[in-house]
Fold this sequence. Notes:
The complex is a heterodimer of chains A (about 475) and B (about 325). In chain A, about 70% of the residues lie in helices and about 5% in strands. Chain A has helices spanning about 5-25, 30-40, 40-60, 85-90, 90-95, 140-175, 180-190, 195-215, 230-270, 270-285, 290-305, 315-345, 350-360, 365-400, 410-420, 430-455; strands spanning about 1-5, 65, 80-85, 110-115, 120-125. In chain A, strands 1-2-3 form a 3-stranded antiparallel β-sheet. Chain B is mainly alpha-helical and about 325 residues long. Chain B is globular. The relative contact order of chain B is 0.12. The longest helix of chain B is centred in the middle third of the chain and has 36 residues, at about 100-135.
Amino acid sequence: xxxxxxTDILIYLLLLLGIGFGLYARRQEHLRSPWRQVLGSRVAMSxxxxxxxxxxxxxxxxxxxxxxxxxxxxxxxxNQVLSVFDVLxxxxxxxxxxxYSAPFAAHLFAKETIELPDGRQVRLYPRLVYxxxxxxxPTMDKWADILxxxxxxxxxxLGLWILLCGLFALFWSRNAGLPVSKAVRVLxxxxxDARWRAALVTGGVLCVLGWVSAELGTAYHILGTxxxxxxxxxxxxxxxxxxLVIGTLTTLVMLPFAILxxxxxxxxxxWIDDVIQYIYTTLNSIPGVLLIAAAVLMLQVYxxxxxxxxxxxxxxxxxxxxxxxxxxxxxxxxxxxRYLRGESLKLREIDYIQSARALGVGHFTIIARHILPNVxxxxxxxxxxxxxxxxxxxxxxxxxxxxxDPTMNSWGNMINSARLEMAREPAVWWSxxxxxVFMFTLVLAANLFSDxxxxxxxxxxxxx
Amino acid sequence: xxxxxIRRITYAIPILIGVNLLTFILFFVVNTxxxxxxxxxxxxxxxxxxxxxxxxxxxYDKPLLLNTQATGAKKLTHTVFFDKSVRLFAFxxxxxDSGRDxxxxxxxRMWPSLAIAVPTLLIGLLVNIxxxxxxxxxxxxxxxLWAVVLCVVLLSVSTLFYIIGGQFLLSKMFxxxxxxxxxxxxxxxxxxVLPVIIGVIGGIGGGxxxxxxxxxEEISKDYVRTARAKGVSEVRVLFxxxxxxxxxxxxxxxVVILPLLFMGSLITESFFGxxxxxxxxxDGIQRQxxxxxxxxxxxxSVLYILGLLLTDISYTVVDPRVRLS
Lengths: 464, 325
């Protein structure tokens, strides 16, 4: 039985909007040429591939359903909500240990008292239930086994990649009108307008990495397990969705306000301008963290008082996530609003808008036809630049306990728990490490990509 | 000039009223004074009389926003909101809900905050400007390219990692400085080293990249070309001409955050256990002490507005072409 969370619906709405904008942009030359410039950058292409992988994980993780229960004839559904992604990664989701274990470990991290068959008690590191359970003698065979599996998986991953490259070359050669052999040579030289070679190489690296971690993940906990024995690799993958939701939905929430109010303030001026300026200066002068804290506390009280209305923990956590996006949107729209106001102030004095007004064109039409398309590049640049900042903000907010729900998988929550783990002796470093790797990759890719987008779309920087 | 400043300050009043109203509503939608009284008195089963007397003692015994029983202007003035807000405008913060003098707390806790914020800002500025100038000297080379890439990499690491990583490396592994805590007088120095270092490192990526853009913008201007055409050496061009002119946007950018240095950093202070205003605010939030949060929001807003005003004034100081009207 499918379950629709609010954030799921919004994220797919956003995807549709994105596709719609893409189709629209294809037909507009002034929008196509900056995108061509973006695709012509090797860094941007590589980052784009990384982002696409993240987005795919996020999208798969946003299709939720309640699995049917096996027993009984009656239509019964489990209380637990799973996503399509959960099903794909069932092996690492379900194989939980007792408590902490290091990456690739075959033994628990802490000593336990175990009673031997003859009644004696010894303190030792017990074997893991799943991690390296297929090994007879882990201390001897483990690394050889890991090496063997890695080599095998690398070969398979490379094979898959070569297959995909071949398919792409076939497709591309038909589009470019070249014979396949020549197309392959051109692609291999990287001599194309859009930097396909960079994208393919990045894709290859990710393909091999993915295959290797999938192969090793079925036999070991490649990033260890956390306090309750859950696989950290699984947690990190699940956190992808949280990060993406915060980074994208927040902008979706703030855009209508920022665009409408910003353009209105700049276009109409007078008292409308005064009121809108007052609103955003007021909001801006409240320290953001405090506003978010107050709002999240408010929500927490609401959730506690209406606990009965939610059928599952996931639903509650989802509402909190959505609310966090809303409130982050409220605190972050002011910057864009101010830019748009300034730009509209300039645009309204330009001749073609003056003449449109002289011809008696209505305010609404002028805004929709003449002003909006001319400020869209600012909107796009802001959206792309804000994304990485929001992903980073999530971690900080979760640390101050005003972020996403503590039961939700997020990098912020992982880092938060890592604080205490790092103080242990010896330190439990893998949660922090996993959160770092996944978050850093996403934020770095987003930053590199957004820099290229900014350079391509900002008219002041263009053609330098 | 004086007239301009006075006008700006008058503009600030409605904004501050708005800020107050917003925080007030946000907090009292959640927490009715009865709730606050209950949580402060500690026990679940406190009597109604106890709640009433607590509310009376802390000034929560009037209607919140609108007094329907009063007449005329008193409808608005005989309320909790009016009582609590008016005093803020005279910077009388009153007492926190747990009974401490907020004004006194703020004057005490502002020093540790400043002790971290000021060195971080100064050292950060120095380091970032040095790096950015070096990169500008080698512009359009591979050094430039990789330096910018490095900046983006540094920028993509969450502050939390810098803090946790720094604490782990310097304090836990090498035992160079204490992990967290604070002390009075000069003993505080050893507690300040780590937060300041981490603050500087955390700011390098963003700062250097931004200053590099400013330098490059300045380098492409006509007066620089003229200077070069006269035969001035590259280093001299950079230091005498570019640096001097680029300092205008850099310093005016710094002025806006100067007043906010008092507020301290929420994250750094709570990680390092420094008794500054940042951790004070976090404590206030977590204890749901409305009086503290409201005072800090008010203070933050005043300082933010002050920062904007100072920025405008500093423009006229450094650039005589700018006139305020």
